[in-house]
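Input record (Table S2, row 244):
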Amino acid sequence: MLDNPSHLLHEMNRVHNLAVELDPEEVWRCLGPAGNARESLNADVLQATGFAASASNPRGISRILNVESAKRGKVYFESGYIAEGKRLPHIFEGAEGAVFLIATAGPGVETEVASMMERGDHIEGVVLDAAGSAVAINAAEQMQAQLMWELEQAGYKVGPPITPGTEPWDIEGQLTMFDVLIADEIDVTLLESLLMYPQKTQSKLIPFGRELRLVNNPDEAPCRTCRASRCPMRLEEYVGILGE
Ligand code: SF4
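Output record (iron/sulfur cluster complex):
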């Protein structure tokens, strides 16, 4: 069991009310390379940036659970929760606990995008959709940064955030996320397809521990000296074995 008295540990669901100040560059990142269209889309991006920031209601929910063990493709948490994924035990080597988090932009942007598409304003709709994604990413990163900072202040090393539906963790991980978190409190629901509503929502799992092996800090990540050249989870470039 964790023995740090931080207010973070062992609490149940914690709701985060977030304020997102969106920069147009964050919207461009979600739109992808615009090439020659950048100039002609600039006004749409500026407008979408302003609209998305005002129409969103960014909120999040998080919970911390102790890790009991990690073996044979499964991580066992306190209270009987289990996360399954072939590579999860490697990510959880040395983990004492994990943060489960969901952050959402709310439904405001996607409702407007649906109306735009219905009216035939496809370009404006695509740009606003990207702005909604940027709000959700910004909200999740804010929460992540705050929670990681609190854990580091309490003396823990923090691992890379893992998302259901990516290499280390199957999409079924969403079922665990929604078992652990009372997402209703921020009006987020899991659909039968395992997608979330609102769509502009992110879910993540972040391991931590005083002896965590796979840390998020580039200076400490073991990937730099690990020869597993085909590893799909590599956090840092291979720089060779020290002393070779
Ligand atoms: S590169 Fe090596 S240390 Fe890094 S995640 Fe892959 S197996 Fe682990």
